[in-house]
Amino acid sequence: MTVKIDTLLHESRRFAPTPEFAAQTAATPDLYTDAQKDPATFWADQARNLLHWHKPFTKTLDWTNPPFAKWFEDGELNVAYNCLDRHVLAGNGDRVALYFEGEPGDSRSYTYAELTTEVKKAANVLLGLGVTAGDRVAVYLPMIPEAVISMLAVARIGAVHSVIFGGFSAESLRSRIDDANAVLVITADGGYRKGKISALKPAVDAALQSNDSSVKNVLVVKRTGQDVQWNDRDVWWSDAMETASPEHEAESFPAENPLFILYTSGTTGAPKGILHTSGGYLTQNAFTHQNVFDLKPETDVYWCTADVGWITGHSYVVYGPLANGATQVLYEGTPDSPHTGRWWEIIEKYKVSILYTAPTAIRTFMKLGRQIPQKFDLSSLRVLGSVGEPINPEAWMWYREVIGSNLTPIVDTWWQTETGSIMVSALAGLTETKPGAAQVPVPGITIDVLDDDGQHVGHGNGGLLVVTQPWPAMLRGIWGDPERFKETYWDKFEGTTGAKDGPLYFAGDGARLDHDGDIWLLGRVDDVMNVSGHRLSTAEIESSLVAHSLTAEAAVVGAADETTGQAVVAFVVIKFSQAEIASHEDIVGILRAHVAQQIGAIARPRDIYIVDELPKTRSGKIMRRLLRDAAEGRDVGDVTTLADTMVMNTITSQMKK
Ligand code: WT7
User: Fold this and answer.
1) CATH architecture of 532-657
2) A GO term (biological process) for this protein (predicted)?
């Protein structure tokens, strides 16, 4: 495990919520004691209190066939109804649901009543295109209200969405569409990013080029007005919406009805389609969104900066906040367009009170300097959240002091695409926080830190983070691959004493318990990188690199990066026959562009080093650990298990060229 833990044991700063804050919070310590008594009953209570059930459930949890859990199995609900109609029926139709801010500065807002009508119309559009319950719909859109409307419309008719981040390439899009056999793609002509128009439709056209695709129609939102190629299967969103009926009654679906698939990287092979279902997922997201952030739906203005293409956007832009009837900001663009104060300007404009973002953004702002946020009125902020990667104490303190006026609670929330919902976090109104710690499991969640034999490591020690009991928002599987689901998450501790009471979910993260038993995340322990809070697999980028005709071999590592947490660094061996064809500089440029084109710009390596050989063990396994040392500029560690102990010397000298 490569872990930086030197400083955390010395962290003695503590930040309790102010007495005023603590006095107004709805969360009470009873949440923990109630949940401890019986987590399943606790979640059943939450499900009944927080959601509307068309048909109440009588069974809470079925864990008789692990790792396949069923929550609230005989209950029926409609996820979109829970996020929309019921708020209108409760008299809150005039409350703003979305304040949309486009990157070029255009803005529009939707009340709950308006959003409900839009989703009803969109549901009718989908039905009109022949989409039925259980069908998969791919969503490839910028961060615009139509993304939220599309997801909710799909959910409303009991279909399954697969949102694909707009930064992914045509190749990535195609493999995801094919894996899920999507019948419809919802996209846009393009979106605005970094002050420029960035096209989306051409990637969809390219992905569907072969004509043997399962996709019958492409619904196209006009966002930028740029020229698009038009095909028989294409339908303009605006044309379809204009004639769609605003009446649509939400039908109920079983609690375990699939809600969405979201692809995420793993250690090997193609991205996994993580499957989430309805009742349990919505319960845990409503609960955590309310209690972690101390949400007051009547008064708060909430802003989660994540794109809907990631799990954070699913759980904490769409489902959690809307289930809770929150008012939120939706921003299309990047933090620095058209100027570096853009986020703070938005917070001032909408009087944002809860901000949920990622450490990589905070570190970028730190580098730019506090004088930028200080030009804006940020006094509306009362809770700050962090997600995606460990937040270093320095960034945590800056976030609190500069953005939070040295007053606001910070909640560092640990979770994953697979967990569906926040698992480890402070509760803003209750927890005395430590800068850099993710703190404690949220009520109803049971976490442990174990050694390789499945033994609890005890306070003061590091090990592997596991979830010991099923939880409502847990993934229900990997789309089409139950074996891979078991192997990837549930086999690690099988047969160990730690698993005697049932299978343990292994998260892939290292963690440490401090002397109080609080949890500190230490990063991934497998070949998965975390770049700007987004998971990328070394294997996937390596296979993209070797797919290029220039490349003989490639090894990819995640190297520490001041801003993005980790950065992609690749070591490539060029085919002998190709080596003289182009300069090193050209080759690096070609390969960087190739990865961006195959996977997406987020996967483009920061550095590519052309080397003669890769460090391998006698059995031929690439020793990425040594390459990571080299990429991070450290002395290279123990090389005695290498087949050729000199190879690292050659590599480090070639890196200097
Ligand atoms: C991986 C999951 C959950 C939404 C964003 C990423 C890392 C996430 C934290 C945190 C330390 C964190 C873990 C995890 N991670 N949040 N607060 N502290 N690490 O979702 O792409 O599924 O990645 O992100 O390594 O396993 P994801």
Assistant:
1) 2-Layer Sandwich (3.30)
2) acetyl-CoA biosynthetic process from acetate
